[in-house]
Amino acid sequence: MKTGKFRGRTNRESGQVVLFTMLALGLFLLGAMAFAIDLGNMWFNRQAAETAADAACTAGAMDMLVGATNGSMPSGANFTVGTSFDCNNASPVPAPCSYAALNGFGSSVAKGSTALGNNVSVSFQNTAPGVTPATLRNS
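Structure (tokenized):
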């Protein structure tokens, strides 16, 4: 003798909620994993670009230091302090461009193009806010 109205029906439908819950959690975890992979890739590319920029700046700064202490830029520097330049098809290749290329950021897109690429260009600021220019004294 059955005591409940839905007694026979509940046995047949048991476990369906668990199935849908597992499906929903699986889709959520798959989406979260894809998001984490995309963010990891973005972070890696940003770090690589920052490393290349740091190496190029260090190369340029070291050449400028040698130029300031010796009175002339070294022959391998291939750039003039205060004159902006673009690394795309520069001949001879300036030292900052060489270091950027060694780190995977060689210029490959023509200047003025709207195409995406690893273009490297160098510009110099005339003044920096709040900084008094240093003067060299001969002693």
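The longest strand covers residues 85-86. Helices lie at 7-13, 16-70, 95-102.
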